[in-house]
Design goal:
about 170 residues; mainly alpha; Cytochrome Bc1 Complex, Chain D, domain 2; two-stranded antiparallel sheet; 8 helices; 2 strands
């Protein structure tokens, strides 16, 4: 076997095994629910009136893309369109995975980061309102038109939450 054929075989094995898929951020592993939000985050929820607010959504996009805060650029790892560009970054376009994240879990992950990953916490660089703006924008990749209903503990049509909203935040 020649050196060239060995090289071709190795490249084929690497590509076929999906090993390089992680380099493109596509290899997230099995879809399993995230751990529940800790006590200090479990009662945090998106201000209800924000779900349909296009201005807040645009503010979230600017934060996500690094335009509004030079210290924060989510797109650098998660991609401008929610498709990861860095290994291990969550694919925000994956509806099945993202439906498992409540708004409070999403908030917690942005604020505190994700242990044993490169996702660091951003609470020192972002206000609580800015974190909610990011949740609002990031959910638009896979859950556009959906809002988290804390009572039902699931994503529902946005208009259903607006009608049943209790606190009017």
């Amino acid at each position: 076997m020649s050196v060239r054929s060995i090289g071709v075989t190795v490249i084929g094995l690497v590509l076929g095994s999906g090993w390089l898929a992680g380099c493109e951020g596509q290899n997230e592993g099995p879809i399993v629910p995230p751990p529940p939000a800790p006590a200090e985050y479990v009662d945090k929820h998106m201000p209800v009136k924000w779900w349909g607010d296009v201005e807040k959504l645009e503010e979230g996009r600017k934060l996500y893309d690094g335009e509004a805060n030079p210290d924060v650029n989510c797109a650098k790892c998660h991609g401008k369109d929610g498709k990861p560009v860095k290994a291990g970054a969550t694919d925000f376009r994956n509806r099945e995975r993202m439906e498992l994240y409540s708004d409070s879990v999403w908030f917690w992950r942005i604020a505190e980061g994700v242990p044993n990953t490169r996702m660091k916490g951003w609470k020192s660089k972002l206000s609580e309102e800015d974190i909610w703006r990011l949740v609002l924008f990031e959910r638009s990749f896979a859950l556009k038109g959906k809002a988290w209903d804390a009572g039902q503990r699931q994503w529902v049509a946005m208009d259903a939450v607006a009608v049943t909203a209790g606190d009017g935040r």
